[in-house]
Amino acid sequence: MDPIMSRPDAAALVRTQMSRKGLTWTKVAEAVDAPLVWTTAALLGQHPMTAAQASAACEVLDLGDDVGESLQQQPSRSIDPTLLQDPTIYRFNEALAVYGPALKALIHEEFGDGIMSAINFQVDIARRAHPDGDRVVVTFDGKFLDYRW
């Protein structure tokens, strides 16, 4: 009996097939019938997919059942420390380092003592035209969880 393929190996095969087939994350998310950012994160190993979602992804990507099986496994959510050096990921960390304390203060002022959930959470990305160059709009939409004693 062979072990279940690792999430990083499945993600590498997903990326390979996307490149070889000229697919976009949007096209795969449409096939999976799930939100774009969630689907992308799932295919990169951060969320488990249902059997139907994994099957749809593997069908559009021409990947085998071994990849589908891996995509259904519960992930260990973490980040490879080398990814923190990627300029895009680094800028997200930088933005949170600069604006995180202000966002926390504003959340507390508006909602009270609590946090924004990253579990009951949605995230979206959009492009907005701007005269100085297009803007990247990232929306974090998390449920407010108040501290209860």
TrEMBL record:
Q: Which UniProt keywords apply?
A: Lyase
User: Which segments constitute the Cyanate lyase C-terminal domain?
Assistant: 78-149
GO function terms (MF aspect) = cyanate hydratase activity; DNA binding
EC number(s) recorded for this UniProt protein: 4.2.1.104
Q: Which residues form a coiled coil?
A: none
Under InterPro entries, the record lists:
Cyanase, Cyanate_lyase_C, Cyanate_lyase_C_sf, CYNS_N, Lambda_DNA-bd_dom_sf
Q: Which residues form the active site?
A: R91, E94, S117
Reaction(s) catalysed by this chain, per the record, are: cyanate + hydrogencarbonate + 3 H(+) = NH4(+) + 2 CO2
The question of whether Lyase is a record keyword is answered with yes
Q: Which PANTHER family match?
A: CYANATE HYDRATASE
Q: What does this protein do?
A: Catalyzes the reaction of cyanate with bicarbonate to produce ammonia and carbon dioxide.
Indicate the family of this protein: Belongs to the cyanase family.
Q: Give the protein name, as stated in the record.
A: Cyanate hydratase
Give the organism the record lists. Answer: Pseudokineococcus lusitanus
